[in-house]
Design goal:
Blueprint lengths: L1 H14 L3 H8 L3 H10 L5 H17 L11 H10 L3 H15 L5 H6 L3 H8 L6 H13 L4 H4 L3 H16 L14 H11 L3 H9 L2 H11 L4 H14 L4
Length: about 240
C-alpha cells in the first residue's frame, strides 16, 4: 500500500496544471487501477481517497481519457450518496465535475444517476466546497434543473459568476480554497445556463455582461474563452 500511496502522490504532482503529462498519463492503465482501488472493499480509505485525487487533475486537464472513467461513474455516485467521510465525498464530486464539463460525458453521467445526489448537495450549506462544485456540475449536466431555475438559482449563479470574476483575476475560489478554475470552462457553463430564461435573468442580476466584457478584453488570445463568451452574449441578446 505504501508504494501505491507514493505512486499516486507522484501522479498528482506531475499532472498538476500540465496538459501534456495528463494526456500521456491518460494513455496508461491508471484509470483502471483507480477503479479497482475504489471498488475493492478491503482498500483503506486513505488509499481510495488518494487514488481518486490522482485522476482529478488528469480529468481536468485532458478530455482524451474521459471515456475510461465511465465504469467508475456508479462508484462515484455511490460515494456521494453513502460516504460518511466528507473529504472522500468531496473528491468524488470534484472528479465528477471535471468530467461534467465534457459534453460527451453528459449522457453517461446522467445515466449513472449523478444528478440527484449532486442536486442534494446544492441544497446544503453554501459555505461547503461541495455545494459550489456540485452546483457547477449540475449547471453543466442539467441547466434546466428545478433547483437552478427556482429559489436557489440566483444564489448558485451568484457563486459561479463570482468564481468567474476571481478566475479572471488569477485568484482562487472559494477564497482560500487553493482551487483555480479555467475561465473558458466557466464561460462554457454560462452558455449552458443561458438555455433557460430564468437563468439568463439571474445571470444579468449577477453582472455577467460586465464580466464577459472584461473576459474579452483581458484575455483576448484565449479562443475558447472568446467563443463561449460570445455565445453567452448572443443568447443573452434574445431577451433584449
Amino acid at each position: 500500500e505504501k508504494l501505491l500511496l507514493c505512486a499516486f502522490d507522484c501522479i498528482i504532482e506531475e499532472c498538476f496544471n500540465n496538459i501534456q503529462v495528463s494526456d500521456e498519463t491518460g494513455k496508461t492503465e491508471l484509470v483502471d487501477i483507480v477503479i479497482e482501488t475504489v471498488k475493492h472493499s478491503k482498500t483503506t480509505l486513505q488509499l481510495k481517497q488518494l487514488s481518486l485525487t490522482s485522476v482529478i487533475n488528469l480529468a481536468g486537464n485532458s478530455w482524451n481519457s474521459h471515456h475510461k472513467f465511465i465504469p467508475l461513474l456508479p462508484y462515484l455516485v455511490h460515494i456521494i450518496i453513502n460516504e460518511v467521510d466528507d473529504s472522500f465525498r468531496l473528491r468524488a464530486v470534484m472528479l465528477l465535475n471535471n468530467l461534467a464539463y465534457n459534453p460527451d460525458m453528459t449522457k453517461p453521467i446522467i445515466e449513472a444517476g449523478a444528478v440527484n445526489p449532486l442536486t442534494a448537495l446544492m441544497q446544503q450549506t453554501e459555505t461547503k466546497l461541495a455545494f459550489f462544485i456540485a452546483s457547477i456540475a449540475v449547471a453543466n449536466l442539467d441547466p434546466h434543473n428545478e433547483i437552478l431555475v427556482r429559489g436557489a438559482g440566483e444564489k448558485i449563479i451568484y457563486h459561479i459568476t463570482t468564481a468567474f470574476s476571481r478566475v479572471l483575476q488569477g485568484k482562487d475560489y472559494p477564497a482560500g480554497s487553493n482551487l483555480y478554475g479555467k475561465s473558458w470552462k466557466l464561460a462554457m457553463t454560462f452558455s449552458k445556463l443561458c438555455e433557460n430564461k430564468a437563468n439568463r435573468v439571474a445571470l444579468r442580476k449577477a453582472g455577467i455582461l460586465k464580466l464577459l466584457n472584461e473576459a474579452l478584453t483581458i484575455v483576448p488570445h484565449d479562443k475558447d474563452l472568446c467563443y463561449y463568451s460570445l455565445k453567452v452574449l448572443w443568447k443573452m441578446s434574445e431577451d433584449d
